[in-house]
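Whiteboard transcription, Tuesday session. T.W. wrote the C-alpha cells on the left side:
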C-alpha cells in the first residue's frame, strides 16, 4: 500500500511572517516598516518573497492603499498561530537553559494594576524579580496580545470583543483559557453640587465623562445607563480613571468608576459603596448619609454595574509557575 502523500512544507521564516502580521495591522506600510525597524523597501521585498514562496497574492491595492486579500486574511490567521507557537518554543528553550529566570510578561487593565490584582502582582514580582514586565492597556489589545503569544497572562474585562466574538477578526484569537478573577463594583460619581432632585431622576443624570467610545467598559456602561433611563451623552473621553474623577471634581460631567478608583474614597464625600449586586440596584435618592459638606468634591450616587474581570492565558503555552502563583494569589 502506498503511503499517503504529504503536502510540501513551505520554506518560510518567522521574519517573513512577522512582516505580514505587522503590515496587515499597521495603518500604513511606512508605519509597519518603522515598527519593524526596517526600510519600507526591505518590508516590500520580504512580503514579495513570502508571496512567491506561497504562490499566493497576500495584498491587493485599493486606491493608493494595500490591503489584505481574502486569501491573505486566511494566511494571516495561520501566521498568528505559527508566531505564537514559535514564541512558546523560544520561551521553553530559555526556561530549559536557565530555569524560570526568563522574562515574564503580564498585562493588566488600569484598575487591576492599582487595586484588584496588587497582591497577585506582588507575589509574581517576588518570584520573577527583575524578569517581570508589566503592560497596562485596555482589554481588547491585552487579550489579543495573549492570543498572539506576546503576553503570558492578562487580566481584562470578561465581556471584551476579543473573547465574546471568539476573535472574529482573527480566527486564532479564541485560543485562550479564562479564569474568573473578581467582580468590580462600578459606582456613579457626580459633582458635589448635584441636587437631590437630579439624583433621584436618571433622566437628568449627566452629561458624562467616559472611557473611550468602543472600549469594553464604555459599551457596558452605555447599556447600563440606558437601561436605567439615563442618557449616556459624553463630553470627554479618557481611559484613565484619575482623569475622569478630576473632570467630575471640576464639574465637567458625571462618571462611572471602580469603587476603588485612586483618590475616590479619599476625596469622595459618601460612604463606601455597599457592594450590592447590579441586578435591581437603585440610586440612593440623596447624597450618601456619611457626607461631609465641607471640602466636598464629588458625590457617590450608588452602584451601576459589577464589572467582571478575568485572567486569560493562551492554551497550549508552556506551563509557568509564575502564572500559577498569580492565579492563586489574585
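and on the right, the sequence the group agreed on:
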Amino acid at each position: 500500500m502506498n503511503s499517503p502523500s504529504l503536502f510540501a512544507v513551505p520554506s518560510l521564516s518567522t521574519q517573513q511572517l512577522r512582516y505580514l502580521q505587522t503590515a496587515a495591522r499597521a495603518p500604513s506600510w511606512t508605519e509597519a516598516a518603522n515598527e519593524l525597524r526596517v526600510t519600507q523597501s526591505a518590508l516590500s521585498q520580504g512580503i514579495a518573497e513570502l508571496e512567491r514562496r506561497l504562490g499566493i497574492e497576500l495584498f491587493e491595492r485599493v486606491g493608493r492603499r494595500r490591503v489584505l486579500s481574502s486569501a491573505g486574511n486566511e494566511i494571516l490567521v495561520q501566521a498568528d498561530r505559527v508566531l505564537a507557537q514559535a514564541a512558546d518554543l523560544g520561551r521553553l528553550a530559555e526556561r530549559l537553559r536557565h530555569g524560570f529566570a526568563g522574562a515574564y510578561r503580564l498585562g493588566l487593565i488600569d484598575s487591576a494594576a492599582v487595586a484588584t490584582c496588587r497582591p497577585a502582582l506582588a507575589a509574581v514580582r517576588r518570584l520573577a524579580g527583575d524578569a517581570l514586565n508589566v503592560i497596562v492597556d485596555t482589554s481588547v489589545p491585552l487579550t489579543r496580545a495573549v492570543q498572539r503569544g506576546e503576553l503570558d497572562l492578562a487580566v481584562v474585562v470578561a465581556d471584551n470583543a476579543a473573547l465574546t466574538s471568539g476573535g472574529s477578526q482573527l480566527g486564532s484569537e479564541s485560543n485562550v483559557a479564562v479564569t474568573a478573577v473578581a467582580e468590580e463594583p462600578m459606582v456613579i460619581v457626580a459633582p458635589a453640587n448635584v441636587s437631590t432632585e437630579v439624583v433621584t431622576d436618571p433622566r437628568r443624570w449627566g452629561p458624562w465623562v467616559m472611557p473611550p467610545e468602543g472600549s469594553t467598559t464604555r459599551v457596558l456602561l452605555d447599556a447600563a445607563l440606558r437601561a436605567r433611563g439615563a442618557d449616556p451623552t459624553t463630553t470627554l473621553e479618557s481611559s484613565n480613571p484619575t482623569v475622569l474623577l478630576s473632570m467630575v471634581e471640576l464639574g465637567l460631567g458625571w462618571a462611572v468608576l471602580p469603587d476603588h478608583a485612586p483618590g475616590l474614597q479619599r476625596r469622595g464625600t459618601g460612604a463606601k459603596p455597599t457592594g450590592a449586586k447590579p441586578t435591581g440596584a437603585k440610586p440612593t435618592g440623596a447624597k450618601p448619609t456619611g457626607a461631609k459638606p465641607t471640602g466636598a468634591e464629588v458625590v457617590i450616587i450608588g452602584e451601576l454595574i459589577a464589572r467582571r474581570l478575568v485572567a486569560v492565558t493562551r492554551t497550549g503555552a508552556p506551563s509557568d509557575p509564575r502564572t500559577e502563583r498569580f492565579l492563586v494569589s489574585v
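Someone added at the bottom: The chain has three domains: 14-76, 100-182+310-329, 184-305.
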